[in-house]
Amino acid sequence: MATGSIPSASGSVRAPVRTGRFARARRRVAVDRAAGLAIRVGGLAVIAGVAGIFAFLVYEIVPVLRPARVELAESATLAGAAPQALLLDEYRTHDAALGADGVLRVVRLLDGATVREQALATAFVAIAVDPEHSVLAGIRADGVVQAAPVTFAISFDGQQRVVEPELGAVARIELLPPAEPNAPLPAIAAPLAVRVDAGATAAAVALEGGGIALAVRRVESNAFTGEATETVERRMLATPARVTALAIDARQRDLFAGTADGQVLRFDLHGGDAPPEIFRAGSAGVTALTLLIGGRTLLVGQQDGSLSSWFAVPQPDGGDRHFTRIRDWERYPGPIAQLASSQRDRTFFAASADGTLGLQHSTSGRTLWRAPSPVGAPSALAFAPKGDAATVAAAGKLTAFEVANPHPELSLASLFGKVWYEDADRPAYVWQSSSGDDAFEPKLSLVPLLVGTLKGTFYALLLAIPLGVLGAMYTSQFMHPRLQRYVKPGVELMAALPSVVLGFLAALWLAPRVERLFPAFIAMAVAIPFAAIAGGWLWARLPKRWLARVPDGTEVLWIAVAIAASMAVCVAMASSIETLLFAGSFPAWLERATGIPFDQRNAVVVGIAMGFAVIPIIFAISEDAFSNVPTDLAAGSLALGANRWQTVVRVVLPTASPGIFSAIMVGFGRAVGETMIVLMATGNTPILSLSPFNGFRTLSANIAVEVPEAPSGGTLYRTLFIAALLLFVMTFLVNTAAELVRHRLRRRYGRL
């Protein structure tokens, strides 16, 4: 080691200085500074990572917050009478229009040119449209309905898409039954309703003197000969008042008629001469009717501007369903003149006679957009098949709109409030994101998932907190050090078990045994504490000379044997207990006595399996908190005459409480974020129930299940990001509150 001499001012020489010591000190300072810098950089990186995750979640959710956008696209001039029915192709290039002059015109929206034109009649009394089958129809004064299908053929010229409108063969239906010789025909009046299907066409029209004329034409083909047989069924339906609006559902099972005195009549087209169901929409006359996709929800527009939705609701007594008013929207300034529903979702346009246009969504009950019509009072309104455009027409005018409305189903009310879904008897919290039916109504309530998350966490912590904290306290303060060397690593090794393994065992091994031996589990709740107390009492009564040979803290082995014996006795007596208390079957008794079904994969199973995964975390952190309590505190308490138990409860436990609280919060976060155990052990059923005997679905498990099936950028995709943000915010707030409480506890007990 290098040394040197430093001369003093008087010329004498000082003692040698070891320069290597200063070099090592400088290296330590440099290493310390580098370590501090690395820790700060790492901490900032963690904060930046968390902030980045939050920002990404918000970025994916922002499109949900944007309002619907409806913008003017093209305008055209129309010849002839004002259109009373419109058909828009899916690529928003052409619009087919039919007016009272009986001429069907197809207009190219880009330049307003009429590219197809066909005269169906000299004049029509009333006109109707079937947008699902692209059919325009009108009825002549003699009661003959003429329906013309309009198709839009797609071809490609290189990379350019070409849309060619084509007019199909005109179908003719005589709506009125044959009249007696020299008898006048009933006078035809508006409105007209037409539905076309592959094998049947239904048409209904109002009559001037009251009532409805209905005709259903069916065409059946012989599978062997190919011969087609046509039959026409005609009926005259009586109504209590003049009919002002008509609608037929897509399945041609129901005919709806609105009257001038505010009533709506539902005729069962397969019910023969059964009287109609009558429900009152209000005091004002009904001016417009239409059905949403699926044909279950009926929209009713009225003379006073009222707009409401209705569908059939199951009755508590199990009787026939009755149409019930479900939702009302803000009134329009004038009578509702036109309604056009989307063929993709439950969005619809409404137009009032004063020229106000509105875009609404039925399930969420939202008014998405409202503005004045650019053509004034509209005579016809159409929604594009893809729901991304609409057209509105008046005399000589036709205007197309672009509609950007990707997530109409999502709102705070639909995500966190009760929603009255179709075919349900009341509003409810429901999650059901998909179905095999194209007309399915998505149910995206996050409440069942949130409750399921808290439910699974509660039952897991109900097992994990007592065992983890009390086990850590006993291991740290009472157990012999020789046993501690095995117990603590053994418990911590439990954390290495993969969640998928625990979920697999819980689903295939534990769940059937819990169902079969549940009375034994109930008995264990009493037997285990009794066995532990009895084991300790017997241990204290053993001869002193025997106890002197056993190290302090090893009595846990004796108590463990007593607990194991009590559990074995409970399992052996499970069938006897079930027979004595539950009439031989606990699941059957539970459903019979309380009405609660017993699902094999339930919250009890998840609580045991997930508690097993959370215990090592709570145990390890709590044990460190107990071990880090200064020994001087415990020694001082013992020196003042307190026994070991009093010292632990009144001195050690309060001092370690900040660490114990942190352990519980970390365990809470582990339970909230658990996915595989919940996914495999609960049946993953998103039901809203607080019963421990039902399954559930958590937010994290739902994200894992639904993400592979969610189209990127779709409504379900955005909803899953909302669920992820909710999970993120919930854990962040809980951890923040836990940290504040921990600091408060540390300040309070840090002076001991």
CATH superfamily of the largest domain: YVTN repeat-like/Quinoprotein amine dehydrogenase
Instruction: Determine the N-to-C terminus distance.
Output: 48 Å
**Number of β-strand runs:** 33
Number of DSSP helices?
15
How many domains? The number is: 3
CATH class of the largest domain: Mainly Beta
Query: Helix content range of the residues, please?
Result: 25-40%
**Coarse shape:** elongated
Rg result = 38 Å
Q: Overview of this structure, please?
A:
- With 752 residues, the protein is of the alpha+beta class.
- It has three domains: 17-65; 69-432, YVTN repeat-like/Quinoprotein amine dehydrogenase (Methylamine Dehydrogenase, Chain H, 7 Propeller), CATH 2.130.10; 465-686, no CATH class.
- The protein contains 15 helices and 33 strands.
- The strands form nine sheets. Strands 8, 9, 10, 11 and 12 form a five-stranded antiparallel β-sheet that branches. The protein has a four-stranded antiparallel β-sheet with strand order 3-31-30-29, with no helix packed on it. Strands 4-5-6-7 form a four-stranded antiparallel β-sheet, with no helix packed on it.
- Strand 23 and strand 24 (322-329) form a beta hairpin.
- The two termini are 48 Å apart.
- The mean pLDDT is 87.
